[in-house]
Amino acid sequence: MSVLLLLAKIQSSWLQRVTHDLARGTGVRENFEAQLNRFYDLLAHAIDTGDPAWLDQIIYDWSASPTQSELEEGQKNLTTILNHIFAITYATIREKLAEKEALDLTGALIPIFTHALEKAARYEMETRVAFISNELTTVQQKMERLDRSKSNFIAVAAHELKTPLTLIEGYTAMMRDLVQNNENGQFDAVIHGVNNGIRRLQAIVDDMIDVSLIDNNLLSLNFQPVWLGQLLGLLRNDVNPDLQQRNQTLTTVAFPGSETMIFADPERLYQAFHNLLTNAIKYTPDGGEITVDGRTLPGFIEITIADTGIGISLEDQETIFEKFGALGNASLHSSGKTKFKGGGPGLGLPISRGIFDAHGGTIWVESEGYDEEKCPGSTFHVLLPIRTELPDPQLARLFGTQQPEPPQKEETA
Ligand code: ADP
Fold it and tell me: What is d(CA 218, CA 119) in angstroms, rounded to the nearest whole number?
């Protein structure tokens, strides 16, 4: 009997066994059966012509379709599957054919299977190399982006640190002169200048520390009862001098939820909202308006800070929350904290986002775009969870089960 006929003799039980062993689930099985039938036909051609290359195409197709996770885990999927198919083939031959027939068919199949395995290993390797080089390109692009933002950050940070240092240097030189000339009466103003410089240095270093805490998931919150209306009122008092200087008006609306007691870290929230409010002042021209409003949503309080400023382009609306994502030209960075468009080290929004995230909240911005002339404005939205219990049961015991009464509302300017 010809070898081809011997192959036909084992066809149906071979197909059944391979399908049963390798494909689970009806959907997978149907597709797999179609593939196996194609494999069988090509195998028959290879035996008929004595040319194992008939199997190359199907092996190539199979090698090109491994899933990403299989590649990531480095599984040798195709060669393993082929080995399995070949083992089942030999077992079926032994079971279904007489000894002489089995020897004939096995003899014909061995060189074809050897060739197929070699091809599979090669194609698989090529697919893997292509996948890895693709990954490498992505990593390289990421590294380049990181490198750019790192150098950008160094330029801006150096500039930001240099300004107060120059200030301190100048004032201490003045002090020396005053001491030399015995003009002790003017010390007050000079010491104020030095203090100013030191405070600004401190603020930048503090921001850097906060970013690193957030980055390393080390930002710990000190949960206490907080009334957002009260917190925003204090903040308003704090930024009042800047508002007056810039001739801007700030409207704070007593929104639903502003009198609700929630557990949160008041200092960190104050810092986060302070960043948002000083940004609103900074990026709004003189005479502009800023509105702080809010509402309650199921489980959350939403606070909005809207300004009539220069706005933010769509592509920047996500990157400004990323560390160093918003760094512009270092030379444009101004020394004034709330001076119009006086850019800072670009850490304010990432820190605010880190603080809201740590509370289980979130922040995003809405703006029609960036236009310094039309001033479309920006609205920052903050969602904070209405947390009515302390997250840590030990702290909850400390405060007791009773919820504290809100303090008297302060009159704000
Ligand atoms: P910076 O120190 O530069 O102010 P931030 O992280 O606070 O850093 O803000 C990042 C960038 O987001 C700013 O440089 C500015 O381009 C943009 N931005 C933030 N708030 C506003 C706003 N209210 N209006 C327009 N642009 C804003």
Answer: 51
